[in-house]
Structure formats: C-alpha cells, structure tokens
Description:
The structure is a homodimer. By secondary structure, chain A is an alpha/beta fold. The first copy, chain A, is 37% helix and 24% strand. The first copy, chain A, has 3 domains: 3-126, Rossmann fold, CATH 3.40.50; 147-297, Dihydrodipicolinate Reductase, domain 2 (2-Layer Sandwich); 340-411, Alpha-Beta Plaits. The first copy, chain A, has helices at 13-24, 26-33, 63-67, 85-94, 104-121, 137-144, 159-171, 175-184, 193-196, 199-213, 232-240, 302-318, 376-385, 399-411, and strands at residues 3-9, 36-43, 58-60, 74-77, 98-101, 125-126, 150-156, 223-224, 243-254, 257-268, 280-287, 291-298, 344-348, 360-366, 369-373, 390-395. In chain A, the strands form 2 sheets. In chain A, strands 7, 8, 9, 10, 11, 12, 13, 14, 15 and 16 form a 10-stranded mixed sheet that branches. Chain A has a 6-stranded parallel sheet with strand order 3-2-1-4-5-6, with helices on both faces. The termini of chain A are far apart. Strand 12 (291-298) of chain A pairs antiparallel with strand 12 of chain B.
Amino acid sequence: MTVIKVAILGFGTVGEGVYRTIESHADDLEAVLGKKVEVAAILIKNKQRERNIRKDVLVTTDFEDILNLPKLDIVIEAIVNKEPTFTFLQKAIERGCHIITANKEMFAHHGKHLIALANEKSVSVGFEATVAGGIPVIQTLRQLLKINRVQQIQGILNGTSNFILTEMREKKWSFAEALLQAQKNGYAEADPTNDVEGFDAFYKAMILSRIAFGEEPNWKDVEREGITPITSELIEAAEKLELRFKHIASISKEGTQIQVTVKPALVGKENPFYHVEGVENAVSVHSDIVGRITLQGPGAGMFPTASAVIEDLAYVCQNNNIKRNFNQTVSAELEQKKGKAKEFWLITGLSKNVIKPSITCIDEISNGVFVIRADKKDLDNLGKLDETISYFPILGEFESEVVSFEEKVSAL
Amino acid sequence: MTVIKVAILGFGTVGEGVYRTIESHADDLEAVLGKKVEVAAILIKNKQRERNIRKDVLVTTDFEDILNLPKLDIVIEAIVNKEPTFTFLQKAIERGCHIITANKEMFAHHGKHLIALANEKSVSVGFEATVAGGIPVIQTLRQLLKINRVQQIQGILNGTSNFILTEMREKKWSFAEALLQAQKNGYAEADPTNDVEGFDAFYKAMILSRIAFGEEPNWKDVEREGITPITSELIEAAEKLELRFKHIASISKEGTQIQVTVKPALVGKENPFYHVEGVENAVSVHSDIVGRITLQGPGAGMFPTASAVIEDLAYVCQNNNIKRNFNQTVSAELEQKKGKAKEFWLITGLSKNVIKPSITCIDEISNGVFVIRADKKDLDNLGKLDETISYFPILGEFESEVVSFEEKVSAL
C-alpha cells in the first residue's frame, strides 16, 4: 500500500488543527482513500517553541527542506499574508504537488494564477477553507450545483464582525467593548482592521465570485464598508423594528456585469441571516432551478477550518485526475424583482427638511433615526453633500415581505 | 458526439419539472457533461390527457415500450407508491441503466436492494430528491463530509407539516383550517395521512440513517408521531415562551445503537429550526470535526425537486464508473452532553397532583399546560396510565441554553 505524504506550512490554529485531525482520523482517511495519509513535514517560524509533534515529522523553518523531501504529494498551506506563501505554493505545484490553502488574502490575489499553473502541471488546488470555515460552500457550488445557474450569493463571511455586532446588541456594549471581548476570545487580531473594515469578507467575496461566475469585478468598483459606522444607538433603533445589523457580502450578476458589495445591512426576522449569531457564518445561494439554499455553520476555529482542509484532502486524492474548470458556471440574468427590498433604508444624520419628494419618510424610530423608502442613487447623492449621513439597506426577499414590513412600520 | 438518452417515469409535478428543466438547461447540461441529454420517452398513466411534450418523445403507458428502446442510459422515476416502481427500476438496472428516483417510500423500502443490484451491474443510483427536495443533503453527506464522522442529524423533512404548523401559529387557525389551506395550495393530498402522521418524514429519516450510519434501526423501534396532537392552544402556550413547534426527525448513533425519532418538538429562538417556516425544509448535521452545519431550502415543489434530480443526473453521468460504498461512513459515539436538553418538556393533560418527585414543574403557562423537567421514561410511564397526556421535548443544543431557558421560564 502506498502512502500519501503531506507537508503542512504553518503551525498556528489552522495548521495545528489540520495536524491533529490527520492524526485522530488516520483510520477514516485510510478507509476512504485506500491509502495511509502521513504528515511528513511541518514548516514553522520559531524553532525555539515547544510543540507536540511526532518525532518522525520533519519540523523546519526552511521551505527548501520540504521541497527536497524524497516523496511529497500534498502541500497544505495555513500561513497568513500573500508572501512568501504564494512563492511557496508555486514551487510546490512546479514540483508536482497538489496544494490546499486556507489563506483567503493570498488566494483572492493569486488564486487564478495558482489554478492555471496547477492545470498545466495536472495537479489540484483545494481552497474550501478560504471561505466560511467549515461550511462546504465552495464544494456545494462546484460539485452540487453544477447545472443550476447561480444568480446571487449573499453571505455573512466574517465571524469577528458578526460576533461584535451580536455582543453590541445583546450586551448593549459599545463597539470598543465588543471588540475587546473579541480580542480576548481570540476572534480578533491586535490590529482588527482586516476584519472590522470588511477586507477579510471582501477577499472571500472575490473567491466566491470567481467560483459562481467564473470572474470577479474590478476590485476598485466594489463597495466595501466595515462595521465601524454601526453605533449602539443604531443597533437599538433597529431592534425597535425587530431588525438586526449583519455584515453581508452580496455577489450577483446582472447581464454581463458582476455586482459585489461588502457592507452592513439590516435584516428582518424572516431572513435566514437574522439568527446567525456570534462567530457563525452563513451563505445563501440563489440559483435558477432550486431557488434559495442557505448553509450555516462555524465560520472559523481550529477544527471547523481543519475540517474544510481535510475534506479538500479527500477530494483532491480521489479526484486528482480531474481537471478543474474554473469558468464552468454559466450565469443568467438576475430576476427583475430582486433588489426591490433595497428601497427601504434605515438612515441617520438626516434632517427631515432635506428629504426630497423621491425619498419617503416612513417613520422616525428614535431621535434622528428614520426608516425611509428611496432609490440608492438619491441617497448616494445626499451622502456626497453631507458626510454625517449613514444609511443601511433593509433586506427582504420578496415584494410581499416588503409590503408586510411597510405595514409593520406604519403600525408602530 | 454521443447523446445521453433519458426516460422519465411519471409526468406529475416532479416528472414534468424534470422534463422542463432538461429542455430549458440543455446547453448547461451539454457544457458540463460534454454530451447532449435527450428525453427519449415518458411513461404516463392516462393517454387521454393533453400534455405539452415534444413530438419526438415516445409517450407511453407501457413500461415495456421504454425498456425496448434501442438506446437508454438513464431512467428517472417520479411516480408514487412502492409498486410497480420497484419492479420498473429493477428492470431498468438489469438492462444496464443508471436510475434516479424521487420516490421516498419506495426507496426507504427497497433502496438497499436497488443499490446492491446497481453495484452488481456497475450502474449508479441517484436519490437526492427523496430527501428534503432541493437541498443537497444526500450529496453533502456523501461527497462533502467524507472524513467527518456524523454524530447526529436533525431535520424538518415534511414541508406540509411545517406549513400547517406555521399557518396555525401565524393565523391562529385550527389544524383543520390549516390543512384545508395546505390542500388548496397543493401541498397536501386529499388523504393527508402520509404527511401529517409523520410517515413521509419517517421514510426520509430511514434514508438519511442509511447514508449517515450505513444502516437503519428496526422500523418498529422508531418513535413516529405526526402533528395531529398539536392544538392551537398548545401553539399559543408555546408562543408565550417564545417557543415554536416543529416536526423533527432526529437520527443519531450511540454506541452501536441507532436512535431515530420522528415527532413534534419545541425549539427556541436560537435553534436554526425556529425560523424554518412554511414549506421550507432544513437539515442540521452534527459531525465530529466541523461541528454543526445547517442546510435550509425548498423541501418540495416542481423545480426544487427537479433540481435535485438534474444534479443527480450530472453526478451520475460524471461518476458512472465509481462504485457506491453505502456503508462508508464510520460513526463515533455521541457526546455525552447531548440530549440533556430533552429533560425539558411542554406537557398538557396532566393534573398537578399526579406530578411525582422525579418531575419538576417549572411553570404553568396556561390552564393545564406546563413546562416541566423530567426524564422521558417517567413521562412514558405516566402516558401509559393516562391517555389524555401529551408532552413535547423542548430542544436546545447545550447546557447553557437549557440554563438560560430555565432562567427565562422562572422569570415569567
């Protein structure tokens, strides 16, 4: 019986989770793959630190040691930053290794290149762990929705932001207090910019766009906003309407145009995202045949992310002769009725006398916080004139929901 | 270029949905499969009825006409009842056709036999459409959670029951009124027994059990109860506690013992099932590496079900040399902490003086409706003595939820 030799780059939360899972699930891997999976080497940064790793595993700070192993089948990358990881993975592919990555920033930037290179060398690239942690959204889009034409994907893709929003609402905390808690729990970095300003969700949205539509928009055209504009007061006002703030990445294609936004929005009780709380992630896929399917689960953490990597490993080993076709999904035009719900907004910083005829004030929820009905264009124009204005779309799927929302608001 | 020749058995909602989808997605199928998919024949019951079917399709009431087609690759079955469908599908396999079925009753009874026969003949069996309509739960379990050991599956698997419960709560309707509406909408049959007594969900649970654990319990050992014991009064009482009735199939393995229950239960706001409303289905899979993943989507309907069939068709065509291993999934023992939440019950028909020391009455919600904490065994014993007693478990995932629930209840 042959053995599958694996190297793990990085031994942080994800790297260690992958190592432990390969050890604990050795029998399952062998049962499914018909071969033993063996961790041959681990790339680390700091040789001094004590680690619980089997004696026969090569532990090194030099990637060249790993490349020079006599046998190496799969390289699993669980580091951060674009470099030197991109260089490492290119070298791994050149050597003929399959690669699996959990690094969204690197993969959003260089995924296309890595996949092209892998196709050339007839190896596979697994990247399930780059989006939504343990939720198998990449494989659902690639393997399970082959004939369905994806029309829109919406997702809560950043667990840290969702945790902060949840804590702010539940504990009536300020953003700063909730962020501190997220840092204490290990959900947020010392510098939280990547999470709270929406960069992390943006990278994931680009990866999803590529999977669903075969391409991504010009990065500069993407509206990206983090959760920092959301105050406790806004959250409280939203609660009066039974609405919750969620940080949502939305990816759709209208005609040949891919539309991506990554920003806070308000959702009502009937929206599947309303109840996605804490560090959970969720992804809702709207396709033409099946309609809307929502997947919810742990978006981060040692073992959920390791799960995505390990399932990729099984997939890669079982399918390593199947070439990836990254541009397979055909997309159809988005139904016209979509987006209607975006006509409702929660807005603050707006004086009532500024409201133009095209903007309907439906209700003042609390001092200076309004629910309005308006076109986005008009609000964008207002926003340009007055920087104190913040506005958030209230999401809903269908016209009837919008109408019932209007009734609810007018009944207040 | 070769052509994949398909026969569709049945031209009801599902059969027609499959036909229309193959027609409308001809280009997508050809792009993905590299071959044209062509409906060669359709089996119907009533030759008199007018149908919108292409002239070159053989439309027949005799299955032998279909078996005798010069070329036939795939037989899609969208009829009801166990027979003659089981016989038809056996013959189709014997002829060397892949089969795809949407018939849960037949598949729960004969799936094992059909798969064994298909393995013998080196053809595939697709049955995604038998469980949870358009939600790809079978393939998620088979393809995406290969290494994860499934520990528990819970599901809202019967859209009709969920619709009735939703209508009863939202519109304060009686069971009879809600059932009538379900029948008007085409969600329930004239004889609704199969749905409202839990048989449909039971069949689906048996199919899930086989996929997740490679086997199923003795059918007679399964606790199966429908939604008929749930009155408007009970629903109202549950609402006071912010709990909702859901009809839930639960499949787990403890040691070597497979436990399946199919019955109503109460869920709180934090449970992903709380917000699964109307004809939607949801399936929550708890596995050892990733934790809990929940899939939600349309559980029935012409196109959601057709979607499942069509995706099976793509899968079968792309994987027709891969033998199914139905017993692949290894299961681990369920964590001990599970099931603790089952100690809380909503109970009616119980006089306070019957309560034994082992049963703690936490609160009387309305006249004769109590929240209690008790062991199931004690309640089962009480139930045997007094047939007027009905009791429903209140679900929760973790101890902390139970505790917070207890706090909530005692604060009432």
